[in-house]
Amino acid sequence: MALTKRIIPCLDLKSGRVVKGTNFLGLRDAGDPVELACRYNDQGADEVVFLDITASKEGRSALIHVIERAADELFLPLTVGGGISTTGDMTALLRAGADKVSVNTSAVKNPGLINEGAEMFGNQCIVAAIDARRNDEMKDGVNEIVMPDGSVCWYEVVIYGGSKPTGIDAVSWAKEAEERGAGEILLTSMETDGVKQGFDIPVTAKIASEVGIPVIASGGVGNIQHFYDGFVKGHADACLAASVFHFGEMTVRDVKEYLLRRDVPVRMDW
């Protein structure tokens, strides 16, 4: 029997509220995080991700009180990211009710954090979040990615909420994160985030083909077809979306029923 594909609503947090923007900019309020998470719980979401998007840039930890509220009311796995720079931060979030922790900027700056977290809590608890941006200036040592128009590029890891390029090849970093003990890759393309033109299929498919752990596609859902493309063309194990759910354009149930009709295996428990 085929493994079921997961649908994951993502709640980007700023000052305790859910926000959503385009290409990581132009944020607008989308509501209370716990109220939205409960809605997705009822709709049959497989997981919910909370990302405190300004925590690393502001040099603080994720919003523990929000996680505690959510954990009290939700009955589905909860992944939390933002400002996690030590195993102590991981411990605090897992104790607050998170099932997994997502590391991004801190792991790029200190890759050993992935090893330490995996050793302490298990690979299944550690998600390596990668924010990647297309770079057309080719250089030695990067993985070439061929775009639909035939052009060749590579994808660069960016940190601090997409504000700082690193020069690190995203494909290579995904492979290293797996080797260090990450249990999943959460891949967000800055090219497609909030644009609603679909997931960035070339980089998603490339990373999915290079690692042996689940890849979560993130950034770009604008219609229900895009979920299908993420799974079938991008070879993602899970698809994550935000604004289309937050602003009522579709429900998790709508997406799962659509995918079932197109022979994509999903969990249905209602």
Automatic annotation (TrEMBL):
<dbReference type="Pfam" id="PF00977">
    <property type="entry name" value="His_biosynth"/>
</dbReference>
<comment type="function">
    <text>IGPS catalyzes the conversion of PRFAR and glutamine to IGP, AICAR and glutamate. The HisF subunit catalyzes the cyclization activity that produces IGP and AICAR from PRFAR using the ammonia provided by the HisH subunit.</text>
</comment>
<dbReference type="GO" id="GO:0000105">
    <property type="term" value="P:L-histidine biosynthetic process"/>
</dbReference>
<dbReference type="GO" id="GO:0016829">
    <property type="term" value="F:lyase activity"/>
</dbReference>
<keyword id="KW-0963">Cytoplasm</keyword>
<dbReference type="GO" id="GO:0000107">
    <property type="term" value="F:imidazoleglycerol-phosphate synthase activity"/>
</dbReference>
<keyword id="KW-0456">Lyase</keyword>
<dbReference type="InterPro" id="IPR013785">
    <property type="entry name" value="Aldolase_TIM"/>
</dbReference>
<protein>
    <recommendedName>
        <fullName>Imidazole glycerol phosphate synthase subunit HisF</fullName>
        <ecNumber>4.3.2.10</ecNumber>
    </recommendedName>
</protein>
<comment type="subunit">
    <text>Heterodimer of HisH and HisF.</text>
</comment>
<dbReference type="InterPro" id="IPR011060">
    <property type="entry name" value="RibuloseP-bd_barrel"/>
</dbReference>
<feature type="active site">
    <location>
        <position position="12"/>
    </location>
</feature>
<comment type="pathway">
    <text>Amino-acid biosynthesis; L-histidine biosynthesis; L-histidine from 5-phospho-alpha-D-ribose 1-diphosphate: step 5/9.</text>
</comment>
<feature type="active site">
    <location>
        <position position="131"/>
    </location>
</feature>
<comment type="similarity">
    <text>Belongs to the HisA/HisF family.</text>
</comment>
<dbReference type="InterPro" id="IPR050064">
    <property type="entry name" value="IGPS_HisA/HisF"/>
</dbReference>
<keyword id="KW-0368">Histidine biosynthesis</keyword>
<keyword id="KW-0028">Amino-acid biosynthesis</keyword>
<dbReference type="GO" id="GO:0005737">
    <property type="term" value="C:cytoplasm"/>
</dbReference>
<dbReference type="InterPro" id="IPR006062">
    <property type="entry name" value="His_biosynth"/>
</dbReference>
<dbReference type="InterPro" id="IPR004651">
    <property type="entry name" value="HisF"/>
</dbReference>
